[in-house]
Amino acid sequence: MSATTADAEQKAKKEKRQGGGRNTLLLMFGSLLLLPVAPATFALMMVYMLPTLLLAMTRMLRVPGAMATVFGMNLSGALPGIVMHWRGPGTFDSAFRMMVDPEYMLINLAACAIGFALLFAAPFIARAWVDIASARLRSKAVSQRKRLLDEWGDAVRGDHPAPEK
To answer: Whole-prediction pTM value?
Structure first.
């Protein structure tokens, strides 16, 4: 394979990865179906989903999974306000009151902030988990090696170095 072909494949993969938010945007704008049926709910949903919309429009984070993580947490923060709106009269007046209600806006923004925190903390948590698991497996292998050497003697070792003490 030539260098130009390999470069073209890498560029295509990179472009494909950068378009990862398309499904999330489709799901988000699927709420446009609410516009003719429930315009007050649509307006409330757009205000509550503003952090995800801004992220999608600016593409500030080019981290894989950024859109899905922020969208999921943003949606989970928006649901309490949406459900309260549905249980109420469902008018524009109640929707506008929900938009400026500090309790529901704080729930929404806190859930979105948790999504951002998860996005940045997850690699470190995964790395720590892998390090702990590999250290445990290594200690298990070393103890098993010592046990086998004690049981079978040094002849089973062959040309391999002696285990560390």
So the answer is: 0.62
